[in-house]
Amino acid sequence: MTVATPPLLAASALSFYRQDEPVFGPLQFELHPGQLALVEGDNGSGKTTLLRVLAGLLHVGEGELFWRGEPLRRDHCAAEIVFLGHQLGLKGDLSPRENLHIAAGLHGARDGMDPARALLDVGLAGYEDEPVRRLSAGQKKRAALARLLMIPAALWLLDEPYANLDRHGIALVNRLLEGHVAAGGAALVTSHGAVSFHGGEPQRIRMHA
Amino acid sequence: MTQFLAMGGYAVYVWPAYAIFLVVLLADALAPVLRRRRVLRELRGRLARQAARQQRHADTATDA
Amino acid sequence: MNQAPLGRACAAVLRRDLTLAWRRRGDIAMPVLYALIVTTLFPFALGPENALLQRIAGGAVLVTVLLAMLLALDGMFRSDIEDGSLEQLVLAPQPLALMLGMKILAHWLTTALPLIVIAPMLASMLQLPAAVMPVMLLALALATPMLSLLGAVLVALTAGTRRSGMLLALMLLPLCVPVVIFAAGALAAAQQGLPWIAPIAWLGAALALALVLAPLACAAALRIALDA
Amino acid sequence: MSSWIPLWLHKLGSPPTFYRFAGKLRPWMLALAIVLGLVALYGGLVLAPPDYQQGDDYRIIFVHVPSAWMGLFIYGVMAVSAFIALVWRIKLAEVVAMESAPIGAAFTLITLITGSLWGVRMWGTWWTWDARLTSELVLLFLYLGVIGLYHAFEDRRQGARAAAFLALIGIINVPIVHFSVNWWNTLHQGATIRLFGPSTMSGSMIWPLLTMMVATKCYYVFSLCSRVRADLLALESGKDWVRQIAAGETAR
Question: The ABC transporter domain covers which part of the protein (chain A) (predicted)?
């Protein structure tokens, strides 16, 4: 990796206020393609808020964000960011396959990727046409993770991706992250659990409560 | 004076109109005064709690 | 990697909402049933005298349809907010106003269209002359999209609040007064054998304006309401 | 912040400065409102002669008409500050917009009640679907919608922004409602008697009316100042300047 490539996402003196009370910040970090960042901090330290700010759901309080070296503009980078929050964004009355079709319709799809393959990869083979509301919490999470495989995004913003998952599920998240990073993508992950990540030491962003 | 108060026989309509005008505006003027008192009372309570907490911290610090 | 084309995105949103409505077809029947109940109550309250019912028929049907739509309005974004799909829609690399326009269209198709379909039946229950029926359908066809569009903006504004049914009615009333006046005005004129084109034209012009502006306003309102 | 906004205005937009400024302005405005109001009342109730058609009944206009003007005027102020609040995200503009709403609603309520009192004599009934009264009623609903939406949010500033958006939709709606209600009224040939006919006004009636109008404007500024002050204290309760005020009032 050369020094000349600008970071995919960079934050300078980023902070956020709610009712004039600082929620987090000022934060300073750079995220390069092929890099994984872990956002660490206690409950209430503003991890989720940080991800929602980066995703564009909340206005930046103070400081600046840069996308590939340029001041970040939402209409330029929206297609390259995918956000997975506490609410999974799945419709309970639709099947995982239908949910993925909608995601592909809105965001586009990776070359050679279709809902059936994505669901196979996350271990939901056989559940493609079951309504999502009949799936278990862990299976719902897997269905949401399939969206990451489906959508062509360079940056993944994952809020507590390990929640509700069993040992195999946690391994699945790690495998997805490793694959994404190896392909030159970047990811920002919040977690208060220990993460065993095999693809090199992740960058750590500390939040102070 | 009585003639003035009688309003040419329309006292029943004229005076209530003026009374409503005054009463509504008076209530409107009073509301922020009460609100200000409540806000300040809550704020003083919070400040007192904070001061007490700091005092406790200081005490435990000197004890140790 | 390939970006999703706009047309496919619109189709995806529209198809999703229509599929969801179809999976819960019982909910589609609710406003229709409500309108039927309200219409049945009028003769009981006013007496079954044909001349009287005929006089109020147009307005009664209009108000009934409006109230039935109001009943369904609250749910326009509710489930999408609860399961996070609305966040995903906001974050999608597509013009939000257009996507919301598709959602509004789906909502109109699933709540207002069934009401328009049974409106002639409701109207004949109240003895509205058959000759006025086409004007009523025309007025409803123009007035109900207006209500869907205006309602969507207000529902988007209340997206960040707890349950808000009554508040929604309070906010919608001033906005729907002109719609009701012109739609009912056209009906009344038609019933008296007067020219009814002018109010219908006003409604049409307002609808054209709302079609362009309301989705944009809805997107702006949603961004305000979710920004917390 | 855009550079064309003068520096003093920018400074005034900061909460502590505005708090002090409003505190100084408040008593003067109240005094002015009371003095002008009393003069107007004396002029309207005592000096102005009875109307040759309506007798003394018309004297309701000295409170009715200024209140009606204020109802619309305050909606205008609210919409302008709502616009500023949404575009430039200025906290003070949000507060001014949201605290204007109850005052405007109060004036609109006065207009409705006094109009109805006058209507009892003119139309023989408490309520009639006269175009002006109906428009006023819709205006009251617009105000109530803004106030209701503001209080429906947990987060005050978010509520203020949502309600500001609603106020802007409302300002587009006001002329449409007025136009449509007028059309509706001619369609159904309703009452078209006007409380405020220019032909019957003589000079001795106009000057108390105009004085009362200025008095209500002063009262509005006074009430807005007190409300904005109370609201700023609540909104900025974490800041030092508010703590100092709270501490200062205990000392007294």
Answer: 9-209
- Taking an 8 Å cut-off on Cβ atoms, the answer to whether D152 and C162 are in contact is yes
Task: List C-alpha distances in Å: A188 to A35, A47, A55.
Answer: 9, 10, 11
Specify the pLDDT at position D192: 46
State the Cα–Cα distance between residues A73 and C172, nearest whole angstrom. 35
Give me the number of domains chain B comprises. Answer: 1
Which of the four pLDDT bands, split at 50, 70 and 90, describes residue C13? very high
**N residues, chain A:** 209
Nearest of C154, C159, C152 to residue C106 by alpha carbon: C152
pLDDT score at D5:
62
**Among candidates B21, B28, B44 on the partner chain, residue whose Cβ is nearest the Cβ of D103:** B28
Q: What angle do CA C53, C175, C146 make, to 5 degrees?
A: 75
| pLDDT, tens digit, 9 for 90 and up, residues A161-202 | 888 888 888 888 888 888 888 888 889 988 766 566 666 677
In a domain, B60, yes or no: yes
Query: Looking at this protein, which amino acid is placed at residue A61?
Result: G
Q: Which of A25, A28, A7, A8 lies closest to A16, judged by CA?
A: A25
Chain D positions in Cβ-Cβ contact with residue A18 (cut-off 8 Å): 155
Q: How many CB atoms lie within 10 A of CB B63?
A: 6
Contacts of A81 by beta carbon, 8 Å cutoff, 6+ apart? A54, A55, A56, A153, A154, A155, A157, C91
CA-based R_g, chain A, Å: 17
Residue B4 in any domain: the answer is no
CA within 13 Å, CB half, D140: 16
Enter the pTM of the model.
Answer: 0.88
- The reported pLDDT for the residue numbered A209 is 55
Q: Residue range D233-248: average pLDDT?
A: 82
CB D58 within 8 A of CB D122: no
CB contact set of D85 (below 8 Å; sequence gap of 6+): D93, D94, D97, D160, D161, D164
Chain A residue numbers with beta carbons less than 8 Å from the beta carbon of C11 are 105
Burial A52-65 (b: 16+ CB within 10 A, else e): bbbbbbbebbebeb
Is there a contact between D243 and B25 if contact means CB atoms under 8 Å apart? no
What is the spatial distance between Cα D152 and Cα C28, in angstroms, rounded to a whole number?
28
CA neighbor of A173 nearest in space, from A186, A158, A185, A154: A158
ipTM score of complex = 0.86
Using a CB-CB cut-off of 8 Å, the residues of chain A touching C94 are: 106
Coil/strand/helix, residue D236? coil
Which residue is closest to C156 within chain D, CA to CA? Answer: D162
CA–CA gap between residue C214 and residue C148 (Å, rounded)? 10
CA distance B28 to B22: 10
Please state which CATH number belongs to domain A9-206: 3.40.50.300
Q: Position A17: which residue type?
A: Y
Both structure tokens of C111: 């709540």
Look at the block and give the residue holding tokens 């799936």. Answer: A135
Note whether residue B53 is domain-resident. Answer: yes
Report if residue B10 sits inside a domain: no
